[in-house]
Amino acid sequence: MTSTPSEGLHPSQLAAFHRDGYLIIPDALPPSTVTALLAETDRLLDTLDLSTHPLTRFLTGGEDGTDHVGDAYFLTSGNKIRFFLEDDAFDAAGNLTKPKHRAVNKIGHYLHALSPPFAALLSTTPSDSRGYVPDMKARPAAVARSLGFTAPRVLQSMVICKQPEIGGAVPPHQDSTFLYTDPPSAVGFWYALEDATLENGCLSFLPGSHRWAAVDKRLVRKGDGEVGTEVVVNEGARFPRGEGYGEEVKGGEYVPREVKAGSLVLIHGNLLHKSERNLSQKGRIIYTFHIIEGGEGFEYDERNWLQPPEEGFTALY
């Protein structure tokens, strides 16, 4: 199906994305859709049964970047909807101290296929079987075409709840570390479902770092039948194809970017970005998914923590 050019990126937006490594598109989702996605998030949280849950905590690397979640519940979530809890929702004895709606860090990783309201964001026309969102700006398929994707595949969709008082910090990282293709091709679509502010832990970016920050390390599954993840040296391509990568002088400062609910933030897979803890009384719920290039000449590594479901990753077009 063909998306109209008006739904893609304008030349000025495309130039800004290539320059900075990220792009903020305000009002990408109409308010009615934001409300519907928040209602779906609440419905999903209602289904969580803590009596049968393994109480898997979502860990983002720690101070040395190696302490990542990696149990079987996490590693087999690529074609399911599963819940990962906030580390600070537990006391020192391992008891949960928050109600479930205030304890979940993340819901993932197959929302784009198993949840109709989230799947609808990938629709291209009113006749699309995934549903359709009226008045949606910068539809993912049109954006992917603007960025030059030939066979984009959607993966790792998740709702992230940076919970009031206990929402954990996410250290500086590159998305291609976790969703590696050779050469790198990941792009993140990050939708604010609530206002993201300095107070509740908005994203911060190191502008232009995608041009000089190589994908030096990767988070992969452990080998020899051992369950878990580990950080290894990347032995494949460290930059995407194209000119201008690896030539910039390193440096700069992180820039926090507050965004309103309904905004879309596009994030280059090599871009360094982070978020601070949320110690406020206001939560910060967002929805995100990534696309990778599934066309000829791009290899999705079999050691990546996230492996495709039996039917393969979801084709955007």
UniProtKB/TrEMBL annotation:
Cofactor names: Fe cation
Plastid listed as a keyword: no
Gene3D superfamilies xref list: q2cbj1_9rhob like domain
MF (Gene Ontology): metal ion binding
Pfam families per UniProt: PhyH
Keywords: Iron, Metal-binding
Taxonomic superkingdom: Eukaryota
PANTHER family: PHYTANOYL-COA DIOXYGENASE DOMAIN CONTAINING 1, PHYTANOYL-COA DIOXYGENASE DOMAIN-CONTAINING PROTEIN 1
Sequence similarity: Belongs to the PhyH family.
Protein name (Swiss-Prot/TrEMBL): Phytanoyl-CoA dioxygenase
Native source organism of the sequence: Parachaetomium inaequale
Biological classification of the source: Eukaryota, Fungi, Dikarya, Ascomycota, Pezizomycotina
